[in-house]
Write the structure tokens for this entry.
Amino acid sequence: MNLQEKIEDLRKRTMSDLRAVADEKTLNNLRTVMLGKKGELTEILKGMKDLTNEERPVIGALANAFRDEFGVKFEAKKVEIEEALMNAALESETLDVTLPGDVQKKGSRHILTQTQEEIEEIFLGMGYEIVDGYEVETDHYNFERMNLPKDHPARDMQDTFYITNEVLLRTHTSPMQARTMDAHDFSKGGLRMIAPGRVYRRDTDDATHSHQFHQIEGLVVDKNITMADLKGTLDLVMKKMFGQDRELRWRPSYFPFTEPSVEVDISCFKCGGKGCNVCKHTGWIEILGAGMVHPNVLEMSGLDASVYSGFAFGLGQERIAMLRYGINDIRGFYQGDVRFLEQFGK
């Protein structure tokens, strides 16, 4: 059998095999076997060295024609196989567009976050700045700069978690008051700020207490600040949070960093002051602590207490939220129970 007959025989067998191919792997193997470096056509064409000058162009033309024909039919077969695979996938993975879709639940901000944002909006509207701080603090800023020197008995009220003798988890956001006063340029005007954040105290977890909770402390320092400014500010904030018909009651108290100090009560928003289970039949609900900034705190920040004065206050988001929404267990805020959280989604 001469070369021309061998090429024709190879062409017939190849085209027959090509028609029978059913998958892409077999198709690629066929191309390698026929046209690869060690393929059958390559082996046949090695005999061209023995041909005459007149025979070589004829055999070369036959080989090129075979390659071209195989290339065209190879691509057509490849498309045919891909379409068959696609059709099979479509038949086995049919999607019924008439079926109802899965409802994706939408989350919402945590009720404590909502409460904090609402309080922040009130103070931003009054010209206050919002200051974020460190949850891990030094004893110096957490206690000493708040007029609580070492071994001061008032520290027992804020027993906390110590990392070292001088580093602890903050017991209030008051350290940011001292840090902000240190950084503030009082020659350009007074300071009005609130410091929201998480605080920690060694406490027994029960329905009304937690070893961690959230606090928003406020500070105003300027010339000629008086108790009247404090009362006017808190009266406005509490009425915005609990209703315009609320009244405030002021009782003397003690905080090391303020003097004089007060506890602030709000008239019960449920019974209007008549007495109920919310206010324990007193008509009043304790809401926050406040007072005029102690001169020692001002002096430690490099301010002349005879020129500057200020007021400070602190309130807890949990207590505000519990009172507003009738929540009777503080642990609900932290347990991640979706049934609890969904009540406040709107």
Q: What stands out?
A: The first helix runs from residue 3 to 20. The two ends are 89 Å apart (CA to CA). The longest strand covers residues 212-223. The chain has two domains: 3-92, 111-344.
